[in-house]
Design brief:
With 292 residues, the protein is an alpha+beta fold. The chain contains five helices and ten strands, in the order ββαααββββααββββ. The protein has two domains: 132 residues, Roll (Urate Oxidase); 140 residues, Urate Oxidase (Roll). The strands form two sheets. Strands 1-2-3-4-5-6-7-10 form an eight-stranded antiparallel β-sheet. α4 runs antiparallel to α5. The longest helix is centred in the C-terminal third of the chain and has 18 residues. The protein is globular and about 75 Å long. It starts with 9 loop residues before the first strand and ends in a 17-residue tail after the last strand. 28% of the residues are buried. The model has no long low-confidence stretch (mean pLDDT 95). It comes from Amycolatopsis thailandensis. It catalyses: urate + O2 + H2O = 5-hydroxyisourate + H2O2.
């Protein structure tokens, strides 16, 4: 029996980076979490402990900080591409780099040049792979919490001896959107594209009369692809943040869809992919989100 080394990578995870760019009294804030991973011919360090080809994870961390100083971070997709290409181009034995970045939002406090409030749990994300002279970009967002208090139904599902859920033609629909979209090419106005995809997701969630969260998921992905030609496919994960009607009858009160109990778990988890049938080959795009 032969034992061999399988796919492997290594890097520095969750480098916290905050930059302040000053334009006179007006300051611009960037708050990022950056993770780097490198791949290549790294058998020697695993098999013999020979570290001659190992770019230390501390070096990777320092590179993130140095790049943030040498030129403005800009859009996270561009920053990730610069980092990935640097590692691949600078070290002959490194054949691939994966860069993951989360951007934590801050809003300027009205009337103040250098004071900010945190924008909540929502994060802008990107995952970039650079390998074999190519680059793949998958961007997205996490924890975009949305709710509509009507315009949602759920009925017509099969019933058996374990079914207790009542059918409804009027319910609260709420979720925390996790979205990833794969770009075609990399010469893209990242900021505009992200803002527009986010807008489309929000507007479709609000406008679509929903018979199921699955139907809403498809409508959201479809709307993005129809309006944004630079996007090849959209992947959505939508936890159903259940709101159950409270039984007020013991108190002699009628509850006409006005008082709800918000349950945090367990929850339904609706996930799916919406894609163009003529999209270019994804290559290593989604590889960026997996371990290897």
């Amino acid at each position: 029996m032969a034992i061999t080394l399988g796919p492997n990578q290594y890097g520095k995870a969750e480098v916290r980076l905050v930059t302040v760019r000053r334009e006179g009294s007006v300051h611009h804030l960037k708050d990022l979490t950056v993770s780097t991973s490198l791949r290549g011919d790294l058998a020697a360090t695993h098999l013999t402990g020979d570290n001659a080809d190992v770019v230390a994870t501390d070096t990777q961390k320092n590179t993130v900080y140095a790049f943030a100083k040498e030129s403005p971070v800009g859009e996270i997709e561009d920053f990730a591409l610069r980092l990935g290409r640097h590692f691949v181009d600078s070290f002959e034995h490194i054949s691939g780099a994966r860069i993951l970045i989360d951007e934590h939002g801050w809003n300027r406090i009205s009337g103040h040049d250098h004071a900010f409030s945190q924008a909540g749990s929502e994060k802008r994300t990107t995952a970039v792979t650079v390998q074999d002279g190519q680059a793949w970009v998958v961007s997205g967002l996490d924890d975009l919490v949305v709710l509509k208090s009507t315009g949602s139904e759920f009925h017509g599902f099969p019933r058996d001896e374990y079914t207790t859920l009542a059918e409804t033609n009027d319910r609260i629909l709420a979720t925390a959107v996790t979205a990833r979209w794969r770009y075609q090419g990399d010469g893209i106005d990242w900021a505009t594209s992200h803002a527009e995809v986010r807008r489309i997701l929000l507007e479709t969630f609000a406008d679509k009369h929903s018979l199921s969260l699955q139907q809403t998921l498809y409508a959201m992905g479809e709307a993005v692809l129809k309006e944004r030609e630079e996007v090849a496919e959209v992947r959505l994960s939508l936890p159903n943040k259940h709101h159950f009607l409270v039984d007020l009858s013991p108190f002699g009160l009628k509850n006409d869809n006005e008082v709800f109990f918000a349950a945090d778990r367990p929850y339904g988890l609706i996930e799916g992919v919406v894609l163009r049938d003529d999209a270019e080959d994804p290559g290593l795009a989604w590889h960026t989100l997996a371990a290897f």
